[in-house]
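Example 260.
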Amino acid sequence: MRPLFIAGNWKMNPSTEADAVALAEAVKEGVGQDHAVRVAVCPPSVFLHRIDTALANSPVGLGGQNMHPEPSGAYTGELSGAMLNDVGCTHVILGHSERRHGLGETDAFINQKLHAALKAGLIPIVCIGETLDEREGDRTEAVVAEQLDGSLAGLEPDQMAGVVLAYEPVWAIGTGKTASPEQAQDVHAFIRARLADRFGEAIAARVVIQYGGSVKPDNAADLLIRPDIDGALVGGASLKAADFLGIIEAARTVTQAGKA
Ligand code: 13P
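Predicted structure in complex with 1,3-dihydroxyacetonephosphate:
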């Protein structure tokens, strides 16, 4: 019902186009023509066009890491959804915590981007997640609920079904500290219940909710086997083809074992 979806967020890596293309080609080769697991890579925007070419005839999707809500105009340094589309993107990451916390992005701004991404025909991957302080203050559900309500404002149910969510606890990103499968499952179940309240059970059951935060080949299966964890948004481990392919392999094994 919800094929597992593994996406690589390369962030501001690697430094050269040659390395980016080599990584994309290794992912392409490792995935082959296998469609059992959805896979996408999200490289830095300057490499997107070249990587779209490298990924020709591959089921591996291509995503941007951010976009601006306006379709064009005087927005120095920004990219529009149409531009991402034009260079071959199928997906776009929105509201990553490194943009929320490092660059001050608000739920309202992310919501504008979300509407613009859908208008541009891109599949948005909307990121949410609490900081360590918020978790320790027992505010995880309140924070996630607020981010969901704000980021998803104004969406119609049929639009929601096409949005991917990524639950990324900020304290687990790049720290080597993964949320335990139970901790992650609890929040994913909470997210799905909130979606059900707002959009109905049938739509909530279709929404893909990825987990992100120190996902590696050796912890992926334990996360992906949980009922409401539908994939992974992978940072560091997506920069090594062998590790990223190892996570995809874990997803394949979980799928073959009967999930999804
Ligand atoms: P790491 O996998 O490096 O913890 O990063 C997760 C992330 O931020 C993906 O968007």
